[in-house]
Design a protein that fits this description.
It holds the Pfam family DUF4129. This is DUF4129 domain-containing protein. Residues 129-193 form the Protein-glutamine gamma-glutamyltransferase-like C-terminal domain. There is one protein chain. The chain is mostly helical. The protein has eight helices and no strands.
């Protein structure tokens, strides 16, 4: 009797090769796409019969409700974007505090005397901006940033535009960037407040 030639690959190796072939992404993707196609087809067929039995009025009302729903969602998204901007990190000038300019200036001078130069910069610039608002030199826009106030002030006092933008940047760097401030920088803010119309009132 002739010996049968050995099987190559062996049964175990053949099973392993088949498993590797079936694990190929092409089979998985094809199966996934087929499942999605079948699910969409079933969904369409399930909705087709009730839709065909619905009256024209019901169809119109459903479409109107859908449009109104989309409009409502878009409106809510725009409101959240607009109203949520401070919470998202908008660097407002005054925050929630309501203090007259003269009190802010007093606090800035006290901070300067105590060597707290960062606090002097922050309260000094707030005093400067609020004094101009109180004197109707610029508009009172709730939620304004230091930069936006500087833009308004620069339009009113063009010859001081560079200084105004400089102290606004300093304010942001100190309050929001946690940068240090020197005595000279704090004094610069207070001098600018003194030099603008309506200067410091003690």
């Amino acid at each position: 009797m002739r010996a049968e030639p050995p099987l190559e690959p062996t049964p175990g190796e053949a099973r392993e090769l088949l498993r590797e072939e079936l694990d190929h992404p092409a089979y998985t993707e094809s199966d996934l796409l087929e499942r999605i196609r079948s699910w969409l087809a079933d969904l369409f067929e399930a909705g087709a019969e009730p839709a065909s039995q619905a009256s024209q009025l019901q169809t119109v009302l459903s479409m109107v409700a859908l449009v109104l729903g989309v409009v409502a969602i878009l409106w809510l998204l725009t409101r959240l974007r607009r109203d949520g901007s401070p919470a998202a990190g908008r660097r407002t000038l005054f925050g929630e505090e309501v203090v007259p300019a003269v009190e802010l200036r007093r606090r800035a001078e006290q901070a300067l005397a105590e060597g707290r130069h960062e606090a002097a910069v922050v309260d000094g610039y707030r005093a400067l901006a609020l004094r101009q608002i109180e004197g109707d030199q610029i508009d009172d826009l709730p939620g304004s940033t230091a930069r936006e106030v500087a833009v308004q002030l620069a339009e009113a006092y063009g010859d001081r535009a560079r200084d105004l933008h400089g102290v606004a940047q300093l304010f942001d760097a100190v309050l929001y960037g946690h940068r240090g401030a020197s005595r000279e920088q704090a004094e610069q803010v207070l001098r600018l407040d003194d030099g603008l119309p309506g200067g410091v009132r003690r």
